[in-house]
Write a structure and sequence with these properties.
Layout: E1 23-27, H1 32-43, E2 47-52, H2 55-65, E3 69-73, H3 81-92, E4 98-101, H4 116-144, E5 149-153, H5 165-184, E6 190-194, H6 225-236
Parallel strand pairs: 1-2, 1-4, 2-3, 4-5, 5-6
Length: 239
């Protein structure tokens, strides 16, 4: 009989301390899941920079969250990716520790009604921007010696074959996550994705304050963006 004893340190952390040394960049941060991630990250002590196309939405969130939230107005599909992180770093004068690739669009049409513009716009915003932001963030982390953390917001639509550009773009996201994680895990950059199902947000035209029961879903209810935010902030933490 061998008596093995394992010792471990146990600490408790207050909510406001969990992310106190983190600076987040959150794309699509003015509404929906991105907004809820920003709110929870600030509550847990982080500074956040929300990125989006609509300044009025970004400013509204920044005013609500106070001096720990800044914003950067840009269409993620047309950002100058190679200088983006240097630019947003100036907002707080601190290195960016977390990239949340959340921005996305969904066009609800039958497969036979999508045109080339629909396809290009969806792929550019959902997939192309996520790839190049992650690519340049990894370059930035290496340059700044930052142990970075990337979380992509994917979808369960990317876990099976699809005939629409949204599902196709999310399948691409899942491939990027696996590829980048395999390529860069040895340099202390963590890369993960969250793939929720139907979530109450503007993109799905569902009011999260309304009735989230949905008979047609296997779980019988729509997911709340706050629930996604909890998972993202856990992945972004050191806990």
């Amino acid at each position: 009989f061998v008596n093995n004893i394992t010792y471990c340190n146990i600490v408790t952390t207050q909510d406001k301390e969990k992310l106190c040394d983190k600076v987040f960049v959150i794309t699509g941060g003015g509404t929906g899941i991105g907004k809820e991630i920003a709110k929870l990250a600030v509550k847990n002590g982080a500074k956040v920079i929300i990125v989006g196309r609509r300044e009025e939405k970004l400013k509204q969130v920044a005013d609500e969250l106070g001096d720990k939230c800044g914003y950067y107005v840009s269409d993620v599909s047309m950002i100058a990716y190679d200088i983006f992180f240097e630019n947003v770093e100036d907002i707080f004068g601190m290195p960016i520790t977390n990239l949340i690739n959340n921005a996305g669009i969904y066009l609800d049409k039958p497969w036979c009604e999508y045109d080339e513009q629909d396809f290009s716009e969806t792929i550019n915003i959902n997939l192309k921007s996520s790839f190049f932001l992650a690519q340049q963030y990894i370059v930035y982390c290496k340059k700044k010696s930052v142990e970075g953390n990337i979380v992509f917001i994917s979808s369960n639509r990317g876990l099976y074959g699809d005939t629409g550009p949204y599902g196709i773009s999310k399948s691409g996201i899942n491939s990027i996550v696996q590829g980048f994680a395999r390529e860069h895990g040895d340099i202390h950059i963590r890369i993960n994705a969250v793939a929720p199902g139907m979530t109450a947000s503007d993109i799905n035209h569902v009011d999260m304050e309304g009735n989230v029961y949905a008979e047609y879903l296997r779980g019988k209810r729509i997911i709340l963006p706050q629930e996604i935010a909890e998972v993202v902030c856990f992945l972004a933490s050191e806990i």
